[in-house]
Amino acid sequence: MLRRWSIPLTTVVIAVGSLLGLAAGNASAATVHHPSTTAVRPGGAAAQGFKPGGVMLRPGGAARTTERNGHFQAESTNWSGYAVTGSNGSFTSVSASWTQPTATCTSSGGRRGSSDDYAAFWVGLDGYSSDSVEQTGSDSDCDGKTPDYYGWYEMYPADPVYYTNTVKPGDSMSASVTFSGTDTYTLVLKDSTQGWTQTQKINESGFDRSSAEVITEAPCCTASGGILPLADFGTINYTASTDNGSSMDSQSPTSIVMIDNSGLDKDSTSSMSSTGAFSNTWIRSS
């Protein structure tokens, strides 16, 4: 079921160990921001319409899924990683861990010839075949020659909320999104190296919950609505990718490869181990 977005999201923001706001179901939105959150992307101005996460976009708008070596593989212009799909209501949780990648930011954007590049790493429910995503993760971006690292959450298509907590390359990150039967989504992002955890509880109904995914993303959007250039993140290693409490590998996941408008791979997606470990490796920005 596609969600109607005429009703604003109701958001309840919880700081670690402290309840800061309460809101009810689909009533008028009431948002309370903890001082460690901001509506402005850390590190500088972002491209018009920038969102660090979003739904999966397919070449030409059509699903192009093939079977290789007994596993399904899909192409996307903004996602790479793995997704498990099912009927509406199939998924109640997703989680994974990763090491925050280093963004290589060279003069004038290096290989691309422009100044700003972006790379988002996240876990989420929905977005593979629906118009929403409930997600949280981190970014390794380039503001010209300056790398930016930060965490965030997003109930797409609502605007993202960014964390002001310190994130550095090499940090041990983990994230989860969990749905309870009371229409409550709990989104947790943890940086074990820096010693912080951010937990958000959001009451909202109407989402499909027809997919769960662990994703590397080239975010949207340029002024013309196109995909933003993918920052050179090197290789990101995900571990313990799970959904509904079990390893994704045990549930016939679909691997996703990110391609450009010419059909060339922008990064690579490795096979997934039995414990839910895999990697993405950067190839080109756009």
Explain what this protein looks like in three dimensions.
There is one protein chain. The protein has 286 residues and is an all-beta fold. The N terminus is likely disordered. Strands 3, 4, 5, 6, 8, 9, 10, 11, 12, 16 and 19 form an 11-stranded mixed sheet that branches. Strands 1, 2, 7, 13, 14, 15, 17, 18, 20 and 21 form a 10-stranded antiparallel sheet that branches. It has one domain: Peptidase G1 (Jelly Rolls, Sandwich). The protein starts with 12 loop residues before the first strand and ends with a strand. The chain is globular and about 45 Å long. Helix content is 0%, strand content 42%. It contains no helices and 21 strands.
Write down the overall geometry. Answer: globular
Alpha carbon gap, first and last residue:
33 Å
Structural class, please?
A: mainly beta
Q: What's the domain count?
A: 1
CATH class: Mainly Beta
CATH topology description: Jelly Rolls
N-to-C SSE string, H for helix and E for strand: EEEEEEEEEEEEEEEEEEEEE
**Mean pLDDT across all residues, rounded?**
85
Helical stretch tally: 0
β-strand number = 21
Relative helix content: under 10%
Please give the radius of gyration in angstroms.
17 Å
Q: Give the strand content.
A: 35-45%
Biggest β-sheet description? 11 strands, mixed
CATH superfamily: Peptidase G1
- Based on the coordinates given, report the CATH architecture: Sandwich
Low-confidence segments: 1-33, 109-114
